[in-house]
Amino acid sequence: SYAIDNDAEVTPLLSQIQESNIRATIEQLSTGYKNRYYTTSGGVSASDQLAASWRALAGSRTDVTVSQFTHPSWPQKSVILEIKGTTNPGKIVVIGGHLDSILLSGTNENSIAPGADDDASGVASLQEAMRVLLSSGYKPKRTLQFMAYAAEEVGLRGSQGIATDYKNKGKKVVGVLQLDMTNYQGSSSDITMITDYTNSAQNKFVKDLAAHYLPTLKVNEDRCGYACSDHASWTNKGYVASFPFEAPLANDNKLIHTSNDTLAKSGNNANHALKFSKLALAYLVELGSDGK
Ligand SMILES: N[C@H](Cc1ccc(I)cc1)C(=O)NO
Ligand SMILES: [Zn+2]
Ligand SMILES: [Zn+2]
Active site residue: 71, 231, 257, 272, which one? Predict the structure, then answer.
């Protein structure tokens, strides 16, 4: 069962989450490259530059490491930042989003695929939670891992490679949260919990976290109908995963996978992504602070 009993730590950290930082990261990722496709120079550079910026956020903390996960059959690497747990480092809490972008019409070296919502928004949301946890000096009991997956758009391939590796090595991942598309508010609801290819007990925990820490937010649920993002890679390997999404299926961002998936289409702000960044921080601290 999931306890929600770390208000003393979570509440002050939540107030440090800033929309302007999330917006800046979405801007950088969606305009800094023509595309972030898993086989192009833009896709490779985006991975390398994200690793560099996460290393900068890590600063001099000796309990933090940044690595790139090499995938043998394509050039874009996934990026992983780890904050090692203090008393229970063998238990791992994972939060992820995907780094790559795509054009439905086909993607080559010069394609314009900004992927601002899909999924710069998810990476930016988790990165802002990471920044606050790192700069505050917060030390989790369990290990926290932040992941920017490669090659999600071409079959959840980066997360599948990582989840398979973790399973083969018997790594104890206690929970996974996926952030894919967090910044387009297609409906009046704030957070839509995806119920297929996810874990119902953890989904309830995430809903309870929203009710406890973000009580003004409207939370509902919906199905994807297929393995629609990286949470499915973890679920398929027997891990516990949840996927809070930007809107019900019927109201999701219709501009994804086109050259019009830009920050401008979300009002040039990250107000919606801000909610997911706060939810992510609450998830990481509540699950990361458990001694067992
Ligand atoms: N198909 C997914 C986006 C997506 C995810 C959930 C729902 I509901 C609708 C759409 C994708 O492109 N992920 O990169
Ligand atoms: Zn996506
Ligand atoms: Zn997509």
Answer: 257
Name 286's Cβ contacts closer than 8 Å, sequence gap at least 6.
2, 3, 4, 5, 6, 10, 209
Ligand 1 contact via 228 beta carbon (within 6 Å)? yes
Distance of CA 117 from the midpoint of ligand 2 (Å): 8
128 CB less than 6 Å from ligand 1? no
Distance CA 113, CA 211 (A): 35
Half-sphere exposure of residue 38, counting CA atoms within 13 Å on the CB side?
A: 20
Beta-bridge mates of residue 178: 96
Whether 249 lines ligand 1, by a CB cut-off of 6 Å, is yes
Rounded Cα–Cα distance for residues 178 and 148 (Å): 10
With left for phi above 0 and alpha for psi between -120 and 50, is residue 51 left, alpha or beta?
Answer: alpha
Q: How far is it, in rounded angstroms, from Cα 27 to Cα 165? A: 32
In the numeric block, the tokens 């800046």 are attached to 24
Kindly indicate whether the ipTM for this predicted assembly is greater than 0.90, answering yes or no.
yes
Measured in Å, residue 229 CA sits from the centre of ligand 1 at 6
291 has a pLDDT exceeding 90: no
Q: Please state, in angstroms and rounded to a whole number, the distance separating the CA atoms of residues 271 and 66.
A: 28
190-229 pLDDT, tens digit each: 999 999 999 999 999 999 999 999 999 999 999 999 999 9
Is 27 catalytic? The answer is no
